[in-house]
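Demo today. Your pick:
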Amino acid sequence: MRRRDLIVGLAALLLAAWSVWVLEGARQGVVIEDLRLGETPVTRMSDGSGGPPVVIAHGFAGSRQMMQAYGLTLARAGYSVHAFDFLGHGRHPMPMGGDVTSVEGTTRLLVDQTADVIALAQAEGGGAPVALLGHSMATDVLVRVAAETHEIGPLVLISPFSQAITATQPKDLLLIAGAWEARLSEFALEQVHKVDAEAGFGDMVGGDGLRRMALQAPMVEHVAILHSRAAQRAALDWLNGFHGRDRDAPVPQTGWALIGLLTAIVMLFSPVARLLPRNEQPETPLSARGLAAVVLLPALAAPLLAAPVDTKVLPVLVADYLALHLMIYGGLQLAVLGWLRGRPGWPAPVAAGLLVVWTLGVFGLALDRYGANFWPTPGRVAIIAALCLGAVPFMLADSWLAHRARLWQRVLARVGFLASLGIAVALDFGGLFFLLMIAPVIVLFFLTFGVMGRWVSRRAGPMAAGLGLGLALAWALGVSFPLFSA
């Protein structure tokens, strides 16, 4: 092993050790139990003291794991927390249904599901009012279920948005938006202005049983707010204020620890990939005209060919369209690259397998435990297989194009694909709107799995990397997006 690999490996191990120490430390003293309420997966967290109950709900395309920073903080402070997966999300096997544009459609189903979890928390809470805490999509669901349910205590809405909030309901409400969420910050302040038009962030308003405040969590956006220490402390203080409690709890740096752990796992793959036998595959550099053809032709043709096709086959929002788009995009790119460069070599199965094991096994299990659901329910296996039909040719082409390419060429190739998705949305905004939410997933994929794929490509060739990354991309997309049945 070279000296550089040794240094990188030791640094990654130290970073991983610190990260796991912080993340596991956040669980110390908390009893964590997984149970099911009918088909709904529920995680119960408490310190065993039988404190006031709290129900926690995640946002769109989220899961129980994404809300665990808040759950663990509240549990360490003596609250009895119930976090659950919405229909079609996380490990819930049943899809969402109804009309997503109607309050009496999908929202109604989620309100009823949340009411069942609240009833469970009430039964175990000894009659104490149930506090509700939710993120993004869940904030609207919680406001509506609170209006229909007795014995509801304070509400804490993270990245809030709900048209059901009035000047008098909910009676006890804390709204927290990220400082980098301008629109949602404005919305949070507007809800306080319904009570006192002169109030600002941090001002508590109300009286006669009404209590309301809007806060901004510093230096976070829609995802990072899920690990904001300031937001967690504010949520705990708000619940303590309602119940007249003064019990505090430390708020560890779980956000940075999670980033550190995943970064360390990526770093550790570098010396591992160097163990692969070298399979040199020099590539002919692409001319400016050739690069333009490889990027522009698929970017323009894929949405034009795929958008008119009725792809409502798979029970996942836009997954079937995405599989077709990826298949056309990757197929065209492979054809152009083959014309310009000739026939590629066969993928090395050992190298591709190692990449799959590391991305899905090591990286995926760490993410599943500490960050977000990454394990599919049985019903998602067929979805992942269908996505492979598009993800594998797409990543084979991308890896072949990126092999020994300059940074600006690799960036241009990925921007071309994102632009292609944008064109598809423009052609059918109503049907393909949710494709916009895939863009951050694709960017994160290339920043993590894509880096590991380049190390495999350098040792075993681009086809091995493409095959492994294609399987990993299909898995990542298959577990991320909600199941939906019209």
